[in-house]
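I have been asked to look over a protein record a colleague put together. Alongside the sequence sits a line of tokens, each denoting a local backbone shape. Please read both lines and tell me whether the tokens look consistent with the sequence. Take the sequence as given and treat only the tokens as open to question. I have pasted the whole thing underneath without changing anything:
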Amino acid sequence: MKKELKIKQLDWEEYNNEWEADAPFGTYHIEITNDQFKIYLIGGLVSYRNSLIEAKAAAQDHFEKRVKECLE
């Protein structure tokens, strides 16, 4: 039986109305522009969403997928 590993939640901090969360392979950054929340990792655009909650969830999903790729 394979034990399911629990991946930690990103820990977000606000800086000047923008959000950052450190990951072992870079920093996730959420930039707020014109009612859009753009998600970046190491300067590259990962995705964008319509709310901060959706953006954080999308970043978490991206983070978990990258971690799981390393484990398979």
Summary: The longest strand covers residues 26-33. The longest helix spans residues 52-71.
